[in-house]
Each structure stands twice: as structure tokens, then as C-alpha cells.
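Incident log, support desk, overnight shift.

02:14 A customer reports that sequence design results differ from what the structure should imply. Their input is reproduced verbatim below. On-call engineer (initials T.W.) acknowledged and began investigating.
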């Protein structure tokens, strides 16, 4: 697992996205959460293609906090089966990566 991670989720309202972002940062599970949107989404659900509007939250965290962040997002998320995906950060400024570590401790 990477030492530093980007974790993404989407939700149906800006307020929900803000709440997920704030609660994760307050609990020290992420150093930051950025809310983007609205974004237009096309998806397949229950055998049908649908469209909708969502808000995306992008978190920065450490590899050892990723699982706890995912558990928090699933528990607090308004969707029954939310998207929670993670990508390793391959490179970054040392000072920035050190900040992620400090902010999640």
C-alpha cells in the first residue's frame, strides 16, 4: 500500500459532501477534503441507465488511515453502497506529504 493516498467518494447533495469532508478531517482520518460539483453522472443501477447530479469529495490521507477513512465514509454516507476508491500518491513535495502525516495524527 502507498504511504499517501487520494480517496474519492460521490454523494447526491453538496451538504452531504461537505458533512463527509468535515467529519473525516475532524476525526483525523484525512488531512483535507475537497468538494467539487455539481458533476453530471451517467450510471447503470438495477439494470437501467440513469443520469443524475452528484458532488465529489477528494480526500488526502495516509496509507495507514485509508481503511478507517473508508469505514467512516460508508457508515456516514447517505448511499447504501457508496463509491469509495483510493489511489496511491506516487510523488509529492516532502513538505506537503509531511503535512498530510501531521494532519492525520
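02:41 Re-run completed on a clean worker. Output:
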Amino acid at each position: 500500500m502507498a504511504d499517501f493516498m487520494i480517496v474519492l467518494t460521490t454523494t447526491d447533495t453538496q451538504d452531504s459532501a461537505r458533512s463527509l469532508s468535515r467529519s473525516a478531517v475532524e476525526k483525523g482520518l484525512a488531512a483535507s477534503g475537497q468538494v467539487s460539483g455539481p458533476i453530471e453522472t451517467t450510471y447503470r443501477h438495477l439494470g437501467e441507465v440513469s443520469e443524475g447530479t452528484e458532488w465529489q469529495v477528494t480526500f488526502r490521507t495516509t496509507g495507514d488511515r485509508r481503511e478507517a477513512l473508508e469505514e467512516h465514509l460508508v457508515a456516514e454516507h447517505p448511499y447504501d453502497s457508496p463509491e469509495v476508491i483510493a489511489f496511491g500518491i506516487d510523488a509529492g513535495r516532502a513538505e506537503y506529504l509531511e503535512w498530510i502525516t501531521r494532519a492525520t495524527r
